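Task 17 of the worksheet. Students: predict the tertiary structure of the chain below and write it out as structure tokens. Keep your answer in the requested format; marks are given for formatting as well as content.
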Amino acid sequence: SLISSGINAEYGERLDLEHKKSDDKLRNFKESSRQERLAMEKESEQKIEKLNNQIDNVIKAKDKEIKQFKNEEANYKKIIIEKEEDVRLTKQDLHEAHNELLKYD
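Model answer:
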């Protein structure tokens, strides 16, 4: 009986030790899984931030192109107005010259 109680105690201690080892393994697995998940989340956030920055840069570049185009368009419109005024004045000059010539006929 004394021997069997000693064997049972030793067996119980061994079971406790195995149980503790299993708990430690599970705890370590959970922690490493948590760390991996956090690392993957951080990596995803960084990728998203990088993509957002790339999108912002494309938008800024396109906005700059649009602004440049609008400036060029405004310049061309000014040139057209100036040319139309030149043509109008030239027509007016020709008309006046024609009237002068008619006086001497």
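Marker's comment: The two ends are 153 Å apart (CA to CA). The chain has a mean pLDDT of 92.
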